[in-house]
Amino acid sequence: QVQLVESGGGLVRPGGSLRLSCAASGSRFNIVAMGWYRQAPGKQRELVATTTSGGGTNYAASVQGRFAISRDNAKNTVYLQMNSLKPEDTAVYYCKADAIELMTARLYDYWGQGTQVTVSS
């Protein structure tokens, strides 16, 4: 099993910045992709940004140019730098990892517990 530990959420004023971190652990797995999703009250969970072990990235249109995802492959840690935050960015942010079990070559996905980001004046 892969465990994900998130950190970095909090309260920030509009226009401010926050950096989220997510560290993955699981020695029997090769983590091939990691990403961030968010869920606002009353809304479905949505993709924010993803990155692969090869360095490819993908962003939701609503955060393009404001958020940046990066990954430290050696540490199996993914970061989300969030700049120019808006009230509509308020949500619980979840880390997700896509991992291949080394023994079986099966693909699994794992989710973190979520971290609250609130953008308010």
Which structural category fits the helices and strands? mainly beta
| Rg value | 14 Å
Q: What percent strand? A: over 45%
Mean pLDDT: 94
SSE sequence, one letter per element: EEEEEEEEEEE
Indicate the low-confidence ranges by residue numbers.
none
> How many beta-strand runs?
11
The number of distinct helices, counting runs of at least 4 residues, comes to 0
Shape: elongated
Largest sheet: 7 strands, mixed
Helix content: under 10%
Report, as a whole number of angstroms, the end-to-end distance: 40 Å
Tell me what the structure shows.
With 121 residues, this protein is mainly β. The chain contains no helices and 11 strands. The N and C termini lie far apart (40 Å).
Give the arrangement of secondary structure elements.
Layout: E1 3-7, E2 10-12, E3 18-25, E4 29-39, E5 46-52, E6 57-59, E7 67-72, E8 77-82, E9 91-101, E10 107-111, E11 115-119
Parallel strand pairs: 2-11
Antiparallel strand pairs: 1-3, 3-8, 4-5, 4-9, 5-6, 7-8, 9-10, 9-11
What would the keywords be for this entry?
single chain, 121 residues, mainly beta, 7-stranded mixed sheet, 4-stranded antiparallel sheet
Give a brief rundown of this model.
The protein has 121 residues and is mainly beta. It has strands at 3-7, 10-12, 18-25, 29-39, 46-52, 57-59, 67-72, 77-82, 91-101, 107-111, 115-119. It is elongated.
